[in-house]
Amino acid sequence: MSDLTAKEQTNVLTAVRFLRARCGGWAPLVKALGFTEVTLRKPATPTVAFRVARFAKVSVDDVLTGRFPAPGTCPHCGHLKGGGDE
Asked: N or C terminus of the chain: which is more exposed, having fewer CB within 10 Å?
């Protein structure tokens, strides 16, 4: 069981997928966060949220509320829809 709401867990997992794309895969991300890939694929915990925020240099609130990555950003490739590079 997690202390995070379902929406917060979804937002954390979106941030994890985004960072995985930015880092070039699971291996560099799990090394940076200090978790296993299996842990990062499970329902998010507050500890995961804090480490993701620290690594991304954003607030935990930004991760939990879905402000990171920016709304409209593809969590799989990092492309920002409407970002002018289309």
From this structure: N
